[in-house]
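Entry 14: structure prediction run for tRNA(His) guanylyltransferase. Input pasted below.
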Amino acid sequence: MANSKFEYVRHFEQADALLPNTWIVIRLDGRAFTKMCAKYKFTKPNDRRALDLMNTAAKAVVSDLPEITIAYGVSDEYSFVFHKTCSLFERRASKLVSTVVSTFTANYVYSWSAHFPDTPLSFPLPTFDGRAVCYPSVENLRDYLSWRQVDCHINNLYNTTFWALVQMGGLENKDAEKALAGTVASDKNEILFSRFQINYNNEPEIFRKGSVVFRDYELVDPESHQVAEEMDSLAEPTRQSKKQTDKDRRRRSRARLVVEHLDIIKDDFWDRRPWILSNKPGLAPKEPRRESLFKARSSFLLRRAALLALLSSLDSFRDASVVDANSSATDGDPSSRCIERVPSRNPPRTNEV
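Run finished. Output tokens:
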């Protein structure tokens, strides 16, 4: 930035670097999404197209920022977790929040037509707000994510029961609210099963558990790995060269991203995926045998087709060479072009005995 007499205005900027050596969680929420859901007539209680669109935008954010180790989304919100060693933008909150929110919003709008091909967007366009929160320990981080997943379950159970009463039970919205006032989870499950034959446990997991975005590596056996140690020690940064750090970052950026609908409250999820906390790339996942055989067969067929095409080209080239050779032989004798060979009228001679 060039020096000038106006540069003093920079002193009004406030430092907003987030606390070092802490997990950074950036949570974004849809703005005025209640009105937007009504405007575009989202399916109640859950619109799978809208959830898939949220996941598409979230995957784009995680792919664009290798510093993100895991993301969790439900309804119109998404939480993105930056590792405690993150130094992106010098950990400035304004930079991190604005980058995540703008990247997510841009991809949400861009991908809309892929999920809602018959419903074009119109103004006002969807927008999101965001905030950054720091968590000092792995326990705090996991409790935060557990809180969001428990909230997903509570809200979805309520909404599933509420809309069953309205859509299938014929109640008005206010009457459904009164019917559910003061009920607990067991009461709602009983209403769903006894009145509408709905087993809540059979509802799609994306509705009950939300969506988890992370980089996929080979799963680890907790009993034979260091994950048996304390989670916080696993997440502690290790000294390594800048070259190795850049190499790990590139490996993370090339890793396959997956969207799963899993239980992230229990230890099993974290024990089998230690790279999420350690921020160290794992081993590439092993492909299922059937998928490997399919890829091998496809590769064989492609090589076979290429070989046949090559042989066909060689045959065509050889035929063309023969024609060229014959043409060259007749070019030297002009009379040969107009002389036509006429079969002899005399029968062939035979040896007389």
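Notes: Residues 335-342 have pLDDT under 50 and may be disordered. Will compare against the previous run tomorrow.
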